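hey can u run this one w/ tetrahydrodeoxyuridine bound, need the structure tokens asap thx
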Amino acid sequence: MKTENLEKLISKAKEAYKKAYAPYSKFQVGSALLDENGKIHSGCNVENAAYPSGSCAEEIAIGAMVAGGGRVIKEIVVIGLSSELITPCGACRQRIREFCNKETIIHICDIQKGYLKSFKIDELLAYSFGPNNL
Ligand code: THU
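ok here u go:
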């Protein structure tokens, strides 16, 4: 689902993608999200020689949102270069879940092909556990 903010989000996610630190996987990912205050926050993956200590692009973008005072993801773009859809990993689906609602749109994009597909959280994380469960 294309939205009025999509092109701006893609452009910010691309900027982050170019700065990704992915010397081990060589798989760069960028992400940009729009929060409830109309602010855009971005992130890229940041890998580590101790592999499990690496961070995903979405994780970094969400951290930037929280540090910037945002608490609700309205839309989030994930962008990379692959023949497959670069959908968020399981842990990032849960991270998005924490700060999204049923209307939040998760856009999957490609550096070369541009916009590909959008999802709602329920499609990516069925019967999820969230703040209301506690
Ligand atoms: N990665 C992300 O940053 N986001 C995703 O949605 C999928 C995977 C990163 C993690 C790791 O640095 C690299 O891509 C390969 O898995």
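The beta strands are 29-35, 40-44, 73-80, 105-110, 114-119. anyway lmk if its weird
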